[in-house]
């Protein structure tokens, strides 16, 4: 396969869009943490601490995704500069590393999605139990490998 300018340019636009999306997600998650912190200051509800911990993990994952995506963008630019200088072997290596970085960002995205879903389930579970004690969301969404006791211990630590 021959490396042409359109290929790294396409990856560059994809990675830039990816970065924009996750910047927006990080801003929303950070705002939600601030709101939870304010609610905790007012109510001293220990349930909020567990939710903040889960949100903090999500923000750290979003940060890592953004860092890896930025590395991918930088390597795309390096690839195009090397192509301008007719250093195709080095450009190919830089482009391959850029693709690997984007792949890592995608894997981290799956992990972040799982973390965000767990955070949402935790928040919904607490709200639904307090408003509707007859509705047990854990029972509805329970996975066979889910250990409730381990989950409770993890939140308390």
From TrEMBL:
It holds the Pfam family DUF2721. The lineage of its organism: Bacteria, Pseudomonadati, Bacteroidota, Chitinophagia, Chitinophagales. The chain crosses the membrane at residues 6-24, 65-85, 91-120. Keywords: Membrane, Transmembrane, Transmembrane helix. It comes from the Bacteria. This is DUF2721 domain-containing protein.
């Amino acid at each position: 396969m021959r490396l042409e300018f359109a290929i790294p340019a396409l990856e560059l636009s994809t990675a830039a869009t990816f970065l924009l999306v996750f910047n927006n997600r990080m801003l929303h998650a950070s705002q939600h943490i601030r709101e939870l912190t304010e609610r905790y200051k007012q109510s001293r509800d220990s349930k909020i601490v567990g939710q903040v911990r889960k949100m903090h993990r999500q923000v750290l994952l979003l940060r890592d995704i953004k860092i890896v995506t930025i590395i991918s963008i930088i390597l795309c630019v390096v690839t195009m500069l090397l192509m301008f200088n007719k250093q195709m072997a080095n450009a190919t290596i830089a482009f391959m590393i850029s693709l690997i970085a984007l792949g890592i960002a995608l894997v981290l995205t799956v992990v972040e999605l799982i973390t965000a879903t767990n955070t949402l389930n935790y928040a919904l579970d607490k709200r639904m139990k307090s408003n509707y004690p007859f509705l047990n969301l854990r029972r509805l969404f329970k996975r066979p490998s889910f250990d409730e006791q381990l989950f409770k211990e993890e939140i308390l630590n």
